[in-house]
Amino acid sequence: MTSPTAMTREEMLELAALDAYGLLDEYEATLYSRAFHQAPPSLQNDLLGLQARIAADETLLPKEEPPAELRERVLRAVSAAIEQDTPTPLASIGRKSSTETIYHETQGQSDPRDHRPTALTRFISANFFWRAATFLLAGVVIAMAYVLTDAAGQHNRLTMAAIQSDVEQVEQLVGPTLRSYLADASTQRIVFTSENPDASNWATLMVREGERKALLIAVGLSPRDDDRPYTLQVRDDEGRVYQIASIEGRSQMLGTRVEVDLLAYGANARWEITSPDGVVMTGSLV
Amino acid sequence: MHRVAAGDEDAMAELYDRFGALVFKVSRQLMPSRAEAEDAVQEVFVRLWRTADRYDPRRAKLVTWVMLITRRHLIDRIRRSSVRPDTSTLEGDPPRSTTDRTPEDKPQDAERNAELLSRIAELPELQKTVIERAYLQGFTLREISEQLDAPLGTVKSALSRGLNRLRERAKSDWAV
Q1: Which of A44, A63, B117, B141 is most exposed, with the fewest beta carbons within 10 Å of its own?
Q2: Torsion of Cα atoms, B16 then B22 then B23 then B27, to 10°
Q3: ipTM of the prediction greater than 0.85, yes or no
Q4: Domains in chain B, start-ordered, CATH in brackets?
């Protein structure tokens, strides 16, 4: 692997080009990013210019132009996504959403392509969306409550609020994006179990298909006495270890966003949460 | 981009007007059909909105960032569907699925990428293979390194040099 401190100008230019084409993996992209920030301003300018020229270069692209109506469809899809991400009170779950209305308003148009919702809008607009989310969320909350209750017997620092958490409280603990992961049928899960049979650590990493943004929810990763963080890492099929994120310990349930490319590490990758003392939990794709 | 991140619809429209055609062309190049390319464009702009708050103008110009998000999304989409765009020129291709591809897509693929494919065919063997697999088929550099049993650094250099050569040749042809 390329070391950020050892990169020559030529290596930087080479990586800049591949970065502009989106061809670097997460690790290489991070190394390039670090090296970029350490580079002198004149080289940074050269790299920025090179990448912009590559990005805007149409000489290798097909000459086809997008259909005029695509603009409207794109803006509708973004509006629907914005609406979906807006926190929805539990009381309104199951109601017909305005997103759905937007979709049905297109039904009378003459172009049959407009009648065909994309996978995205189809999913967002479906009425069962929030109903399914409710059931899923309830199931997860019950599971979390069980784990927390079990953990509380051994870890008094876990709060009662978390033990008795309802959906909103869970969201307060792990962040408002929980719903979107639970409700997304394409979400993939890596479930972690404790390496120590006497401990009640538990974690799940939820990754939305096609995105590198993932949500890690963990219980039992209490702050260490030395304040050193935990590490989320993955060991690929060949035993190479990639550090994904550093995780600050928290006495309550924690939720943190991390960047993960599930496809980069192979189907049999072994996921680990480690402390400076060793492996705390191991996980695999379920 | 602050306005895009905040969900400002006018800002999103401006972003589309500025980059929509470019995003579409890249999507058209990598997706097996026009319909899938259009779907991909919608997804890309949703992704741009979702990630807008992470855009750092000191790290990349806006066009770079937009195209980076676009290409990453398209590569993810290709890997997810296990459908690799058909380059029709490879010998000893890695195995790939042809599900979801319609017979009528194939001539379109060949036609829309004909110019690019003919340019790629003129490259040295390693550059040609690496570009086809990384740029058009969405394989990671690590996967290609393993497939070819070649060091990762060699793959990176071949890819970078090959893409650079393609751009230079295309520009000189345009200038004639």
Answers
A1: A63
A2: 150
A3: no
A4: 2-82 (1.10.1740.10), 105-175 (1.10.10.10)
